[in-house]
Amino acid sequence: MPSPAYSRILLKLSGEALMGEQGYGIDPGVTDQIATEVRDVRELGVQIGIVIGGGNIFRGVAASARGMDRATADYMGMLATVINALALQDALERRDVITRMATAIEMRAIAEPFIRRRAIRHLEKGRVVVFAAGTGNPYFTTDTAAALRAMELKADVILKGTKVDGIYTADPMVHADARRLDRLTYLQVLEQQLKVMDATAISLCMDNKLPIVVFDLRTAGNLKRVVMGEPVGSLVEA
After folding, report:
1. Is the full-model pTM beyond 0.85?
2. What integer best gives the mean pLDDT of the chain?
3. Taking Cα atoms as reference points, which of 140, 157, 235 lies closest to residue 196?
4. Cα 74 to Cα 88: distance, rounded to the nearest angstrom
């Protein structure tokens, strides 16, 4: 059997990915599917960190636009990511995947605080580490948190699981003539304002030459295919 293309990955999941076809909240079927995919990749010997968003429960930017203080709204969004991380941790552990949950905001009753060296040690011991509460700071998205954690952990790649099969020139749900881009540079993403990750996250990845693969998380087996180096989704690199 061929070896995986990556030995340590950072999987970025949006909160919306956990909704499934619902309009709000967490679809247990989706968390179960993601947990199964992560377990299958873990069995290849790949070290896995996961950063999860909270948009299925609360979006700080949206609340701020409606008049709420931006910092307060962002902290509420961080707490939403903790709820999602707990749900995913439960799904993983029901599949006998040993996990640790680390939060950027200290809450010792349910998770350990993020300590870089400790997180790396967990990965080396074969544990899946789920990172919650973003960077712990308002005004930064979970995309930026994913880029930051990936570099702190020396991950080989960021894998961003989405509802579409890659990066398009426009939103394919709205524009029927949108073209899929198999390969592009960080500068192309920034210049064309493509909705891959926010500009801060892309800039961080560009400065540190960290590749990003955007792929359809809903297709069973896709995560494993990406890890094995198959041409799935869209690749962003220098």
Report:
1. yes
2. 94
3. 235
4. 21
